[in-house]
Amino acid sequence: MNPISAWMFFVKNNPEYLNRFAECFWPSQIISKEAAIELLTDLEFADTPLYIFGGWYGVFAQMLYHKYPNKYYSIDIDPKCKRVIEGMKAVCKNTLHIEEPNIIPVTADMGEYEYPEDPYLVINTSTEHVSQETYDTWRNKIPKGTKYFIQGNNFFECDEHIRCTDSMNEFLRINHALDCFEYKEVNCGMRPDGSPFIRYMAYGQN
User: Fold this and answer.
1) Which structural domain, as residue segments, surrounds residue 72?
2) Which of 35, 93, 113, 149 suits 65 as a labelling partner, its CA being 20 to 30 A distant?
3) Rounded distance, CA 28 to CA 193, Å?
4) pTM, rounded to two decimals
5) Cα(48)–Cα(204) distance, rounded to whole angstroms?
């Protein structure tokens, strides 16, 4: 049984999380996550964990884990995210009797986070949600030589988006990623004004 069923069991019994959690499955969210996984096709794991900042409710971590089983830290500033991931894992163990994904939820501000283990890959799916100062502090903490993946968008209309860009070049510039070796633009639908909703993503090494 696919562990995604565990989330459905959890939100059924905890309906207060349902509306926000359902946003994880908007077409634009799934399209961008699938595109990110495609961009990360050369991953070769040892025992070194991956860190996902802006991990939200762990859906992206679960999608990656399904293809690349390893240890994942899912970091988000919203404490509800940790509760949902812990609930999902408990359902795997106690209700569905399947293996829990090795996803460790953490509640933290990405700019203040300290790595408990050296990372293999660092992912930031929320570059548009944080100030330039917070992003720069986060990026400067990535250990030298570590691969990283970043994602942002041009959806200026969302109040939570405080650092959007309107081009790939601008996205790469403000995120100090001009030397990334792979990048991609993904059309995720339409914005309220009818213009394309684009997610920008880049993959490089610090």
Assistant:
1) 4-205
2) 113
3) 16
4) 0.93
5) 17
